[in-house]
Amino acid sequence: MTTATVAADPGRVTLRGRLGRFDQAFLVLGITVLLALVGGATTTNFLTTGNLTSILSLSAAFGILAVGEAIVILGKGLDLSVAGIGLGCAQATLALMSTGMPEWRAIGLMVALAVVIGLVNGVIIAFLNVPALFVTLATGMLVIGGIDILVLTQNVYSVPGSSFLAAIGNGSVLGVPRPVIIAGSAFLAAWLFISYTSPGRLIRAMGDNFDTARASGAPVRPLQILTYVISALLAALAGYVTMSIQGSVQTTITSFDPILFTALTVVVIGGVSLSGGRGTVLGVLAGAMFVGILNNLLVLHGLSTAVQDLVRGAVLISAIAFDAWLHPRNEETEKSGEL
Fold first, then answer.
1. Cα gap 46→297, rounded to integer Å
2. Cβ–Cβ contacts within 10 Å for residue 266, how many?
3. Distances (CA, A) of 131 to 79, 215, 264, 285, 305
4. Under a CB-based contact definition with an 8 Å cutoff, are residues 114 and 235 in contact?
5. Which of 23, 66, 110, 132 is the most buried (most CB within 10 A)?
6. Is residue 336 very low, low, confident or very high in pLDDT (cuts 50, 70, 90)?
7. Quick one: average pLDDT of 284-302?
8. Which residues touch 15 (CB under 8 Å, ≥6 apart)?
9. Contact criterion met (CB below 8 Å) for 187 and 67
10. Residue 334: pLDDT above 80?
11. Cβ–Cβ under 8 Å, residues 66 and 267
12. Which residues pair with residue 158 across a beta bridge?
């Protein structure tokens, strides 16, 4: 059989083709289970109840952030403002409460601010065609800088022990930690939205082929705006959960970068393609569990911050390279533009 014959054979399925049809979520879940087994066999205190609860709670916090990021990327966008929105709104809420403002009013104001930032991101990207990379990076920094100048009077605020915000990160319901319940609700809502609503399905179609979705009559610009508003709301929720677990939160560059990096790592490892239109909520869940266990093992083994960053960076670049190989750019991808 000649090379031309092989190339023309429609029945020939490549390894890339087989993997492309396979849900990456199950692969990541398998690797996560294997990593947990290795961790349990090699690491003291890994399988203790306290440590596993800590893994689940922290995974829940950045998992919520990653779900919002995943919805944006499914629509072929990118949101780098999520960490700034999450951390900024959380600390600003505590700052407003420290001045005597009622808790629910402070939360309501910051949730409204998150919606406004999401709208600003979406409108600039959808109607002015400015690359999402630059828009969302700028708005994330503006949120942190603006809140620092206009609202904060100190670097660290503690969560009042009797507040609602303290309760969401502590305690459990039927033995399940509250952050896990909140994250589970967010994952379930995202799955139902993407799988069973018209806007959710159109967002996926828009990410798969922007021009075709627009030609078919899909309201692509409002859908783009919607993805950034959803991402901003989930970022605010993730900020509150993180703050409740830790008891306080800081809005500094050193705290901004790791959270954003973790959210992006979860999304990419979970199989949400950066080219848009591909990925599942189950994959994001699997990615959150993998990253949570990996981070925990790095800490338990006493590795330095530099070595931990090296490992995380290697994992992320490997996941990006795998995604690029599995979903190579083609003419249709090029037509939809850059992030």
1. 8
2. 31
3. 11, 22, 18, 28, 32
4. yes
5. 66
6. very low
7. 89
8. none
9. yes
10. no
11. yes
12. 248
How high is the mean pLDDT of the chain? 85
Nearest by Cα to 336 from 171, 169, 214, 188: 214
Q: 157 exposed, middle or buried (CB, 10 Å; 0-12, 13-18, 19+)?
A: buried
User: 241: which 2 tokens?
Assistant: 């959960």
For the chain, the distance separating the N- and C-terminal CA atoms, rounded to the nearest angstrom, is: 43
